[in-house]
Hints:
Elements (H helix, E strand, L loop, with lengths): L13 E3 L5 E3 L9 E5 L6 H12 L1 H6 L3 E6 L3 H11 L5 E3 L4 H6 L3 E2 L3 E2 L2 E5 L5 E6 L4 H12 L3
Helix pairs in contact: 1-5
Amino acid sequence: MAHPDTGDQAPVIDRIAHDGERVNTAAEPDARPVVVYFYPRDDTPVCTRQACSFRDHLGEFNALDAQVIGVSADDDASHRDFAERHALTFPLISDHDGSLSQAFGVGRALGVLANRVTFVIDRHGVIVMRYQAQLAAARHVEKAMTVLRTL
Length: 151
């Protein structure tokens, strides 16, 4: 499946997050970099480690003026429980219809489980990093931080 890659314009995310706030990556052009990470499911061991790693580094992301957004097919109620249970203060977006995964070309591992893919999008809406690793939860944060420091 073809997917947007580094150098391509990122698909726009315009959804209501788990906390009821609207997330629109096109609302403020040239506003701030965005880290969008797609993960398979709330409350699974690797997904929880990944979300908590983003949470634990949120101060560093904020210092780099970057917004973090998590995306999975789970519904808003699941996202609210997940965020509350793990003190996640960044938006979690439900991709219940799979349209965001499709737009970003995330696909499925072995045709079944949603892939774990992280994108860094610069201030101009251009993808500057696409990183995919199914089991390396913390590497997604490290890779994103490394790229953000160069922007």
